[in-house]
């Protein structure tokens, strides 16, 4: 069964995540289909992509597939982790990607949505940064995605409380571009895409890459990076990390002991 439907209509590609039984959890298989969809869109020389779930869903995506997180003693968000790969693919795709959001967006899926270029959401959408719920030491470039999408205080509140924020608050803090009702959001996003199609694709592609380079331009010395990586290792080696993943699998609240 395919996990992502790809529809190419002229210069617009729509990628629809279709694994509602697992709440569109970002498994390696799901991510590989998103990557294949982006490759198909690139080959078709599309000028805009819409990334969405099926209309009317309650959950856009429940984030990284927790069943695929390493049990312990291995970075859960290393360079080649599928979530990291798809974030980079979205950021480097040479045309705008519109995230059409309905329902809850959780954890790594929140980063996927925010890595897109334009975010349009329905009023029932929510956005949650969830590492603290699982004991996951989020990675530096992942946190930078969030920092580029909202103020530091907003990111800290979302990360330290792990509580979802609603679409109205997300619009207020600049996390999303537009709020649209469920019965008009698709037409709104398609209309925006059709407008982008009429503009100069080379100019847009180079501005997208310039903005990516500028947004990622933060000085961090090798010593600082190694120090942070060492701190992260203590977390993914911790019993708290193991407890977070285990509690989810056992469908119970985690008990974190800070060790
Ligand atoms: O019991 P079955 O086999 O039907 O499977 C259930 C869930 O286990 C499964 N599922 C997931 N499987 C793997 N990874 C997930 N992230 C995930 N989410 C859900 O899907 C089936 C239906 O789920 P259920 O019964 O809970 O649905 P619901 O409608 O009652 O609740 C939907 C959610 C999204 C509120 C609930 O599933 C949930 O809280 N999921 C986890 C959300 C979350 O914490 N995501 C963060 C994943 S870790 C991540 O993204 C990063 C590493 S980090 O944490 O650092 O941000």
Q: Total helix count?
A: 11
- What Rg do the Cα atoms give? 18 Å
Shape category:
globular
N-to-C order of helices and strands: EEHEEHEEHEEHHHEHEHHHH
Bound molecules: (2S)-sulfonatepropionyl-CoA
State the end-to-end CA separation.
41 Å
**How is the largest sheet built, in terms of strand order?**
1-2-3-5-7-10
- Number of E strands: 10
What keywords describe this structure?
single chain, 259 residues, alpha/beta, six-stranded mixed beta sheet, four-stranded mixed beta sheet, 10 strands, globular, binds (2S)-sulfonatepropionyl-CoA
Fold and architecture overview:
- The chain is an alpha/beta fold and 259 residues long.
- The protein is built from 11 helices and 10 strands.
- The chain has helices at residues 28-43, 82-92, 108-115, 131-134, 140-147, 152-161, 167-172, 182-197, 201-215, 222-236, 239-249, and strands spanning 4-9, 12-17, 48-53, 59-61, 97-101, 104-106, 118-121, 126-128, 165-166, 178-179.
- It has a 6-stranded mixed β-sheet, with helices on both faces. The protein has a 4-stranded mixed β-sheet with strand order 4-6-8-9.
- Helix 1 links the parallel strand 2 and strand 3 (48-53).
- The model has no long low-confidence stretch (mean pLDDT 97).
- The structure holds (2S)-sulfonatepropionyl-CoA (YXS).
- Residues 22-23, 25, 59, 62-67, 76, 104, 106-108, 130-131, 133-134, 136, 138 line the site of (2S)-sulfonatepropionyl-CoA.
